[in-house]
Structures are given as structure tokens and as C-alpha cells.
Amino acid sequence: MTKSTPHIEPNDVPIAKTVLMPGDPLRAKYIADHYLDNVEQFNSVRNMFGYTGTYKGKTVSVMGSGMGMPSIGIYSYELYNFFDVETIIRVGSCGALQPQINLYDLIIAQAASTNSNYVDQYNIPGHYAPIADFNLMVKAKQYADQLGATVHVGNVLSSDTFYNADTQFNDQWQQMGILGIEMESAALYLNAVHAGRQALGIFTVSDHILRDEATTAEERQNAFTQMMEVALEIAE
Ligand code: HPA
């Protein structure tokens, strides 16, 4: 195991086999403060805070990923390939793209379609479909059901753009059954499979792209709690 990388300097604080990754590093701090015991900080490079602690006796880490595929691409690559991390669970928000989905629902990303060329680096002679780890996905769905969450499982879009110049953009992806749009999971799934590791993305719906609805930070808390309980429960 590497001692440090250009973006992660743990200074001998261990990183767990499972890392939860919200986009926002302050969200990582919030998760560590509110859900984990025995917390130690393992990263502060570029303020991309990372923490290791315990949840119901299991050792779990949590670290921000930043926004977008280049950012999560760097952090997840280093965690998998230099720090022997087995599983990364992205815990994020997404914009819903189907009428049957409502604000605060949970979405589990079975697959992550993308308009990014992140996959081109592998020189695959075709179009690779980045998918979640099946076992993690099944466990997440079962536990979300147990919690009584409204949960949708399917294809999300990992988009390189938050603001789209093309006015047809959302309609075309909606037509292809995309449940919601976020900006990171495809790169995470690609890094996971390339390293022979596992990944899953779980999201709370923070806005509705079709209906132009948005949540407030306060209102998101309940859905966020369900998402966190699912992620922490399936962490090994
Ligand atoms: N688009 C992209 N990423 C997002 C969105 C969105 O509407 N909502 C939350 N993350």
C-alpha cells in the first residue's frame, strides 16, 4: 500500500476497505461527525476531507469526491489502486428525469450512461456499459425497501455538463429511460471494474428536471438520512 499520493496524504491514518463518497467534502465531514464513531481524519489535501471511523463496529471511511468525472476519477483511482480500497459507494444527489420519480425518492444506479469520453482511455473497440456491482446493488435495494424508502433502480446519466446548450438534451435522455442526471458515477464504475473492485451509486432526488422543482437543504435531510443508512448498512 502506498503511503501517499498527489491527492491523498493519510499520514498513517488507515483508510477502510469501504469508502463512502459524497461530492461535497463538508458533507463527508458531516457524515463522519453524525454517523461514525472513533473518527480520525485521513485527508485534507485540497480540502478534500477524508475520515475513517466505525459504524456499528465496522470500519468505514468517508471522503469527498468533488464534482464531475475528472475529480471523482482521480480520487477513486487513487483509493482503489494505491490504498487497496475494495468498495466505493457514492452517496449523492441527482436531478430526476422521469415523471414517476419524485423529489426525495432514492435512485440506485444500476448503470451509468455518459456523454463523457472518460471511457476512451481504455481503447475498447465498442461502447462499454458502466454498471454497478450486482451484490451491492441488490443489498442496497433490499435495505431501502426495509426502510420504507421509495426507491428506483436503473440507468442514470453521468453528464459532463450541468448546464446544457442543447435544448433537446434532457428529452433525448429521458426517451432512453434515464432515471436521473448526476455527474460522477460512470467514471467511478469504470475505475472500479478496471481495478477489479466494486462500486455503487445511490442518490436522493434533489431536483426534478421535467417539473422544474427543487428541494431545500433542510427538506433533503430525511431522504439523505435514508440514503446514508442504506450505504452504511451495506458497507462491509
Ligand atoms: N444535473 C446534473 N447533476 C445534478 C443535477 C442535475 O440536474 N442535480 C443534482 N446533480
UniProtKB/TrEMBL annotation:
Query: Recorded E.C. number(s)?
Result: 2.4.2.1
Q: Which InterPro entries match?
A: DeoD-type, Nucleoside_phosphorylase_CS, Nucleoside_phosphorylase_d, Nucleoside_phosphorylase_sf
Site (Important for catalytic activity) residue list = 220
> Glycosyltransferase: is it a keyword of this entry?
yes
Q: Which transformation does this protein catalyse, written as a reaction?
A: a purine 2'-deoxy-D-ribonucleoside + phosphate = a purine nucleobase + 2-deoxy-alpha-D-ribose 1-phosphate; a purine D-ribonucleoside + phosphate = a purine nucleobase + alpha-D-ribose 1-phosphate; uridine + phosphate = alpha-D-ribose 1-phosphate + uracil
What are this entry's molecular-function GO terms? purine-nucleoside phosphorylase activity
Q: Where does a purine D-ribonucleoside bind?
A: 7, 182-184, 206-207
Q: Does the keyword Transferase apply?
A: yes
**Active site annotated at which positions?**
207
The Nucleoside phosphorylase domain, residue ranges? 18-234
Q: So which domain of life are we looking at?
A: Bacteria
Function, as annotated: Catalyzes the reversible phosphorolytic breakdown of the N-glycosidic bond in the beta-(deoxy)ribonucleoside molecules, with the formation of the corresponding free purine bases and pentose-1-phosphate.
Q: Record's HAMAP family?
A: Pur_nucleosid_phosp
Q: How does it assemble?
A: Homohexamer; trimer of homodimers.
Q: What is stated as this protein's family in its record?
A: Belongs to the PNP/UDP phosphorylase family.
Q: What is this protein called?
A: Purine nucleoside phosphorylase DeoD-type
Species in which this protein is naturally found = Staphylococcus marylandisciuri
